[in-house]
Design a protein that fits this description.
It is built from 17 helices and 17 strands. The chain is of the alpha/beta class. Helix 14 (418-434) packs across helix 16 (473-480). Bound molecules: the ligand O=P(O)(O)OC[C@H]1O[C@H](O[C@H]2O[C@H](CO)[C@@H](O)[C@H](O)[C@H]2O)[C@H](O)[C@@H](O)[C@@H]1O.
């Protein structure tokens, strides 16, 4: 009988009567002296029952368990790998795992169940590298919450989306002045915008008449959306797109544009294009008509050379497209309203003569009644005259009044504003870039895949940027929000009266100088972006 002292108690084996007797003595002693760790016989903690393993699983190594599970999932037949002499049971050796892996790969490629599964499970969309800032869909109650836009341009350097920049004129490119005709563009700003337009698509969107805007800005290569977007013109294509036309989409062998930028926020593109479909069906019909007449013209005119046999035919076609002079764009909404607007203008000039400091500006598709220079006591009279005029025939129900910065703007009472104009321009750019009909390249290819990417992919590859200062710019901020756009409200901190009460803008800038710095940053961001062609 072994007797090793432990906690003052000997370990006993119950072999004979002496032992039993001795044990009960020891137990008594332990109880009396409160010795921990001792329990009399029969009161020792019952050891947990060991899990009974099946004979199979006792012998099963992790490797064979894996093989058994795989065969269960995919219906594979797996063979046992050769066991090396030094491989230990219960551990996966390097040879084991390599063998299992190659076996698995081979079997997977043959398994019909797995193939079916692969087809049915769609690939997850690739993660965007630099997600654009989240759009604000609800109006922001406090403009001071917004962050500075300067950093945005720097962030754009890393982005891969094609910029389309929309700039408001008064209060954005030029400071607000008391005489509307004196709001000329500074040379510095002209240089900055000109430099940006060399590298990105730029449009000026303003309440001013389109011709007046052109005269002020004097940059012929830009798009101009005058009279709050009712009157649009421009070169008719996306800037420098032709330089990206040398690659082909693997699926359709079409030339592709924003291949590298497709990874942008595709969801935004989807949402935006759905929105577009929903509300501009009439504009789309007009487009369909324009496309049809272009097609007809192309069929009657001498067809352009078709580089069918060339190995680089798409590149050649692209060059031909680039070398042709741009077709140009001219689009007006509600032209039939121009005579009515002229009548309103004449009447208002006559009626407002009595109010000193007031003035009426003809913006062709809109009429601006300025009251910046009117004495505060006379200002209600200006609004009363405008309102009473609008209640008369033939203006009632035909024209509507909007308020801007010390100005009332009368325009056709139709659903068209800066927001619609911006969406119109974006859709125009998309169509111009994806229309390869003239070269006959779209034979047998679904319309949405003509240029190697879908409408949604195109929208996902474009990043709209809009900079504006007025209430009317809010329509544009709101319209481009689903694209994950950058929208910037120019909002001087001291300007408490004239700033919008709420905004859909994602960022703010404080004045025209900041806008120039931002435009400069955008231009250098475009220049710094790696070329798509080089990849
Ligand atoms: O859309 P915008 O380019 O911002 O044009 C809106 C109006 O801008 C002009 O008026 C404003 O700027 C004037 C010059 O700084 C200022 O005197 C006036 O008080 C502002 O309202 C323009 O004259 C209007 O026709 C536009 O509708």
């Amino acid at each position: 009988m072994a007797s090793t002292p432990r906690n003052g108690i000997a370990d006993l084996s119950l072999e004979d009567d002496d032992s039993i007797k001795k044990m009960s003595e020891v137990a008594k002693f332990a109880r009396q002296n409160n010795i921990p760790g001792y329990r009399p016989n029969g009161h020792h903690p019952v050891p947990k029952p060991q899990k009974q393993r099946s004979e199979n699983s006792i012998r099963e190594t992790p490797m064979s368990a894996l093989r058994r599970r795989l065969s269960g999932w995919f219906g594979l037949s797996t063979s046992k790998p050769p066991r090396r002499a030094n491989s230990l049971p219960g551990k996966i050796s390097r040879d084991d795992s390599e063998h299992a892996l190659s076996e698995l790969k081979q079997s997977l490629s043959q398994s019909p169940r797995w193939q079916r599964r692969r087809k049915s499970v769609p690939k997850p969309p690739p993660k965007p590298r630099m997600p654009p800032p989240p759009p604000r869909t609800a109006p922001c109650s406090d403009w001071r919450e917004l962050q500075s836009a300067r950093g945005i341009a720097q962030a754009l350097r890393a982005g891969r989306r094609q910029l389309v920049v929309f700039l408001d004129y008064d209060g954005t490119l030029t400071p607000i002045v008391s005489d509307p005709d004196a709001a000329t563009l500074s040379d510095h700003m002209r240089d900055a915008v000109g430099k940006l337009s060399d590298r990105a698509t730029v449009a000026i969107v303003s309440g001013r008449a389109r011709e007046k805007l052109r005269n002020f800005v004097q940059l012929p290569e830009l798009y101009y959306a005058g009279s709050h977007g009712f009157d649009i013109d421009g070169p008719g294509g996306l800037h420098a797109a032709s330089s990206f036309l040398c690659r082909r989409a693997p699926s359709t062998k079409r030339p592709i544009l924003f291949r590298r930028w497709r990874r942008g926020r595709r969801g935004d593109g989807v949402a935006a294009s759905r929105r577009w479909r929903a509300f501009t069906s009439s504009a789309r019909h007009r487009y369909a008509g324009a496309a049809e007449s272009r097609r007809r013209r192309a069929s009657t005119a001498t067809p352009p050379p078709r580089p069918r046999e060339s190995p680089h035919r798409y590149a050649v076609a692209a060059r031909a497209r680039r070398d042709r002079p741009p077709a140009g764009l001219r689009h007006s909404v509600s032209s039939e309203m121009v005579p009515v607007l002229r009548a309103a203008r004449d009447l208002l000039i006559e009626r407002l003569q009595v109010i000193e400091g007031s003035s009426v500006e003809d913006n062709r598709f809109s009429v601006s009644v300025h009251w910046r220079n009117v004495a505060p006591t006379d200002r209600p009279a200006v609004e009363a005259i405008v309102d009473s005029t609008l209640r008369e025939a033939p203006f009632a129900g035909v024209l509507r009044k909007n308020s801007g910065k010390c100005v009332y703007e009368l325009r056709p009472d139709v659903k068209w504003d800066k927001g619609e104009a911006v969406l119109y321009l974006l859709e125009l750019l998309r169509r111009r870039e994806t229309d390869f009909d003239e070269y006959g390249d779209d034979d047998g290819v679904p319309e949405e895949r003509i240029a190697g990417f879908t409408e949604d992919e195109w929208y996902g590859g474009v990043l709209p940027v809009y900079v504006g200062d007025d209430v009317t710019d809010e329509d544009a901020f709101k319209a481009i929000a689903p694209f994950g756009a950058v929208s910037v409200l120019v909002c001087p901190s001291g300007d408490k009266v004239e700033r919008p009460r709420a905004t859909h803008a994602t960022h703010t800038l404080k004045d025209v100088d900041d806008v120039r710095a931002f435009v400069d940053e955008l231009a250098s961001a475009c220049a710094a972006r790696p070329s798509v062609r080089g990849r």
